[in-house]
Please model this.
Amino acid sequence: DNVIKIADNKYIYYGPTAANSFKPYFTVKFDAHGGTGSMSNQYIVYGVQTNLTANTFKNSGYTFNGWYAKRDDGTWLVKDKNGNTSWQTKAPEGGSYVKYTDKGSVAWTAPAGHTVTMYAQWKQVNEKYWWPIGSTTTTTVNGKLFATGTPVSTYISSGYGYRTLKGEYQFHAAIDITAANIANKYVIASKSGVVVISEYQSLWGHTIVIKHDDGKYTRYAHLNSRTVTKGESVQQGQVIGKVGSTGNSTGPHLDFRIFKNGNDTSFYINNAENPLNYVSATNARPR
Model:
């Protein structure tokens, strides 16, 4: 999990490859049998011993995002759409992971017969959009698959704007990303957010729409498969599906769109923006 152990029960997660190469989210792990987790312990940050606080990484562009609880059987404390809590491997559709927002410390009670590990998480502020095609190499963090390395080589087969398709002159509000062997390559979340649509649609095939904290939405269509569900929080670089040719498609490709607004269920061409104003294959993972 790219977790570096500093001392007994003290870990710092730097990921994905180096101490100064953070993911959009990173996590500090606290092992305990129940009780209180505190960030007042001594940690090594950038080679300097320091007291870890909610503001430790502020100057690096990260804000404290809360605490999460994981049980020793690999399940997380989650709540369903009605607010009922339970221990599950992932948050249910329409639900979420239980997040404690107290800064600096958090108290919890370990379930009978189990131990609990608490994770303090920081979130990158003002994420830039990433190219939505993933790398062939992957890492797994907290049960989620990431493909944040150099994306597989692709090209745009149809750009944003007017085009003639099957004899009809029409506006194309997407970029179509493809390659000779693009089928089943990883598709990643271009930016962190919440999944508002994850379903099969007759025209677009397997489709995912993610709502982001800047009010915009990204849509990923014609997928071969989906690995996230409606209501699930996803992190930038997380694998959400694989490239396919489902729905009304002429061949394997990713139909990628960005909408400046929506209502979580309806998205229109006049709300679409040119994705190339936000993403680039030559600068695929901007910071």
Observations:
- Confidence is low (pLDDT under 50) at residues 1-22, 32-37, 40-49.
- The chain is about 0% helix and 45% strand.
- The radius of gyration is 20 Å.
- The first strand starts at residue 3 and ends at 7.
